[in-house]
């Protein structure tokens, strides 16, 4: 786990007034440099991001961080504020990989500790996620709730049921790591429509747990397409402090197409997802102190644990606990395309 210290400076007179503290989750579909070089797309992304004090971004594609850092630099230029970003490892089991990024207003909120959730052995196919969650604790100066944890996730559509269920394990791990209950799981869960159906919910622990509140309901539409109405993007909150801190009726999708009067084609150029957002209660006793900001942009979130692990005792001929597992060295496979190549383990349909 990585930590950073936060220095305070008393220059409240220089701090722009903030009337809200909004957190968002936004899958910016296949974000790369092409969305920066297209000035129209870039400027709309800035108009969206400036609504928030803290944003979890999914589907950042490039191993090079130039594009996302450039976007945050332009955000700072446009707002006159100082946003910074915490960037995960490049995550995935194949050549297709993504990053999670936390973008935050560094003068009033900062990450203090972070890590990638250790979800098992990738070499043995027993890891729970295609892209393991990126977990970070944040300290906020202007909200009633001074410290909370975010768990960012972008599940694989093919394994959404098992991955959303495994978020319960990631939540338990975060509780132990940070010794706190105020945890918000957020991201593109793919938890709707054909990926997670009504018959799947009874076997998803995160849904059945009385400790968790799903703040984005099943009837919300977080997709831009006119052909879908799906609540793929979610907030799941736990902890009395966090649940009390969230302003009622503020958790919702932000339809930027309607808000900015965009054509359908332009909206699709931004993303195939709308961001979801919520608002936290402000601290009425806040007196204007701010964090010292960094002269540079971009904090590396470290690397995942990809060391070789011992597969003794793992049944490589079964898909139990191994959905998504693929390697040319395995006797059979548990990935979504195994049926196409007639390489599935015999119990693939039973477990995956």
From TrEMBL:
Protein name: Deoxyribonuclease-1-like
Domain of life: Eukaryota
SUPFAM superfamilies, alphabetized: DNase I-like, Somatomedin B domain
Domain SMB: 315-352
Keyword field contains Metal-binding: no
Record key words, sorted: Disulfide bond, Endonuclease, Hydrolase, Nuclease, Signal
Gene3D superfamilies per record: 4.10.410.20, Endonuclease/exonuclease/phosphatase
Gene Ontology BP term (one): DNA catabolic process
Entry-linked InterPro entries: DNase_I (IPR016202), DNASE_I_2 (IPR033125), Endo/exonu/phosph_ase_sf (IPR036691), Endo/exonuclease/phosphatase (IPR005135), Somatomedin_B-like_dom_sf (IPR036024), Somatomedin_B_dom (IPR001212)
A GO CC term assigned to this protein in UniProt: nucleus
Gene: LOC117368155
The family this protein is said to belong to: Belongs to the DNase I family.
An example molecular function term from Gene Ontology annotations: DNA binding
Signal peptide annotation: 1-20
PROSITE patterns: DNASE_I_2, SMB_1, SMB_2
